[in-house]
Model the fold of this input.
Amino acid sequence: MSTYNRSQAAMGPMVLAMAIIVGILLLMAMVVKWRTVEHIPSVDYAPHAQAMESEADFPVYVPEGLPEGWVPTSTNMSADGGASWTVGFATPSDMHAEYLITGDAEAVEAVADGRAEGTVEAGGLEWERHGADAEGDRALVHEGEDGGFLVVSGSADEEELERLAASLQER
Done:
């Protein structure tokens, strides 16, 4: 028969086992926290800006001096039916904003289909403000004298849309 008696067992081994388990759980929690930091992939829109300059019959605008937190996430250029170029951004408030340069009035109507709500001055240009459409996107529209349109739109709030509009500078 065994001489072991449970009443004589020490707490030390149990405390050591619990400390090891807690240490492993803390390590796992730190790894999960480190991996949940959002990384938004960024794109370079400069090649499309250069190509747009040679394709378009109107001035090309690019953002200059946007504050930290604005990340260009997409760029799309099309020459079908006239040159058009769209650049999308993730904003500092984790919303979406984009600008469209086009000579196609129908493309503008498709993007800015909310009700016109007056005008705003941004970046030295006058923009027509459009309220939220069915998807909740707002828009600012500037029609240039040369037949080109600038449209700033997205789910971002009006302040962020105006900030993007104000940053657009002619190349």
User: Anything to note?
Assistant: Residues 95 and 156 are 5 Å apart (CA to CA). The two ends are 93 Å apart (CA to CA). The first helix runs from residue 12 to 35. The mean pLDDT is 88.
